[in-house]
Design brief:
Strand content: over 45%
Helix content: under 10%
Oligomer: single chain
Structural class: mainly beta
Distance between the termini: 23 Å
Largest sheet: 8 strands, mixed
Length: 516
């Protein structure tokens, strides 16, 4: 595929800070049914970013064609997503174009000049709402491309779930929209689905490795080291793949916007699972079985609710527990972890205790965390060792959280630890460090943390995870690279490159263009 045809004429991610563009700025209030007037029309658009370089876009600036006036739309705050924002507002009749997408959290913004990408102008005609569907923003090596979604053409489902007070406005007959239809050459969405920006929650089953990606893509590593992307009907980011034993599924995959999918053995397509009366939200993980019933952790606003249903498909869900959660610094997500155990499940909000559920007795047991502080990282090694970290302190448990041992890190001066301690199949401990130049290093301890040996110094920031099917998996920090790479190793010193989202064809095209 020749991707150079849809490269934006202007629009790389740039650090513009909070600079206001244009001579005037109008802040558009969030549309509500009572505020709609004959000359004002409801407008909705959503934007999905296929990269962890930004948080989510939280401001959208428009420019009215023939005017220097800038108009600002703000995103709906109740939608929790790692890449999608929903913008609503009211606008008078006229023709408009998008001029700037802002992420005020990271101060990374995307400037759109006239003719950028495959967006085009849109019209507000009066007498009805304008629903512009979804825009897709994705990296292309060090560039950024933008286009319209062919899969998400209506925002009404998001509005009903996260801004229900505005839903009556968008249920009316539409009046206006994009001036031109979606360009047949616009393959931005298809390109992004094939190269998800970042991956979450690495799990394993029968020698296969799975990781949830953006754009509705589940990445799968086969036993020979080949990676492939498995997609479903939507483009909601996928959070976690849970191995199960069901007649029609080997995996259950949870994701944003109430996404629940299944993967049958030998299939290469994810199929939707009807969720019954499960409330909408960001589904973090599903744990359960046919005999024990099913539990789903659902993130909405700043709370995670654990729901239970005896039946998975079209289930009748009841609330079991509800916990307020805190957002972690940077792009580390929320202070909430849930995982399967030998007899059930466990979760924690990173303070006070782990809550453990025994499926057989349906009894909850609190397991005290080792210190009165907030923990910011947790990981379960393939050996079953549980590790937590926070405030520069590291602890491990070899009995599922009943007892904890402190681990002291002897990293070189100038290096800081990253994440938690992990354990390999041979019992040795692993730890990632990073120096002041943001170079990563991998350390190993054969005596439970008393002494540490440098295994590998990396030139760039990476994440390393211990697994069963392959001893070590290395994943690049996509927010630093602009693209994703994955390598594996048996000893931590020699690494085999297996996957890269870097587009060699476009890279060669750019090289030739610069040489001209």
């Amino acid at each position: 595929m020749i991707v150079r045809k849809f490269v934006m004429k202007a629009g790389q991610l740039r650090r513009l800070g909070l600079q206001v563009l244009g001579s005037s700025l109008v802040v558009v209030p969030v549309a509500v049914a009572a505020a709609a007037q004959a000359e004002q029309n409801a407008v909705a658009i959503s934007i999905t970013s296929n990269t962890s370089q930004i948080d989510t876009f939280d401001r959208l600036r428009l420019q009215r064609v023939g005017s220097s006036q800038n108009i600002q739309l703000k995103k709906t705050g109740k939608l929790v997503s790692r890449g999608t924002s929903l913008f609503t507002g009211t606008l008078p009749a006229g023709e408009y174009r998008l001029s700037l997408l802002e992420d005020t959290r990271s101060h990374l913004n995307l400037e759109l000049t006239a003719g950028s990408g495959f967006i085009g102008n849109f019209r507000v005609k009066g007498g009805g709402p304008v629903d512009l569907g979804r825009l897709i923003v994705t990296p292309l090596n060090t560039k950024v491309v933008v286009g319209r979604s062919g899969r998400v053409t209506s925002n009404l489902p998001l509005i009903k779930a996260y801004a229900p007070e505005q839903a009556p406005l968008y249920e009316k007959q539409a009046a206006g929209g994009w001036v031109d239809p979606r360009d047949p050459k616009d393959k931005v969405e298809e390109y992004a689905i094939g190269k998800p920006g970042d991956l979450e929650c690495i799990t394993e089953k029968d020698g296969l490795v799975f990781a949830g990606g953006r754009m509705g893509t589940l990445m799968q590593r086969q036993a020979n080291g080949a990676w492939r992307g498995l997609s479903g009907p939507g483009i909601a980011a996928l959070n976690c793949a849970s191995p199960v034993k069901l007649p029609d599924a080997d995996l259950l995959v949870t994701g944003e916007f109430g996404t629940l999918l299944r993967l049958a053995r030998g299939e290469n397509k994810l199929q939707a699972v009807p969720t019954g009366d499960l409330p909408p939200g960001n589904l973090l993980r599903v744990v359960g079985s046919i005999n024990s019933g099913w539990y789903i952790a659902n993130l909405r606003d700043d709370n995670v609710t654990l729901y239970f249903s005896p039946k998975l498909e079209s289930g009748k869900w009841t609330e079991v527990r509800k916990d307020p959660v805190e957002r972690l610094p940077g792009r580390l997500g929320y202070r909430y972890w849930i995982w399967p155990t030998v007899n059930g499940l466990a979760y924690t909000t990173g303070r006070d205790a782990i809550q453990s559920l025994d499926f057989g007795t349906r009894q909850w047991s609190p397991l005290a965390l080792p210190a009165k502080q907030k923990f910011s990282s947790l990981k379960v090694s393939p050996t079953g060792m549980l590790a937590i970290a926070g405030g520069g302190k590291h602890y491990v448990s070899y009995d599922a959280g009943k007892q904890w041992d402190a681990v002291k890190l002897g990293l070189p001066k100038g290096s800081s630890d990253v994440g938690t301690v992990q354990q390999m199949a041979d019992g040795s401990l692993l730890m990632m460090g990073v120096d002041s130049a943001r170079k990563s290093a991998l350390y190993r301890s054969a005596d439970k943390g008393r002494n540490w040996q440098l295994l590998k110094q990396f030139e760039w920031p990476y994440h390393v995870q211990a697994l069963k099917s392959v001893p070590l998996l290395q994943m690049s920090d996509e927010s630093s690279f602009g693209f994703l790479t994955m390598s594996t190793s048996s000893d931590g010193m020699k690494w085999n490159a297996e996957y890269s989202s870097y587009d060699k064809e476009f890279g060669e095209h750019e090289k030739q263009r610069k040489e001209q």
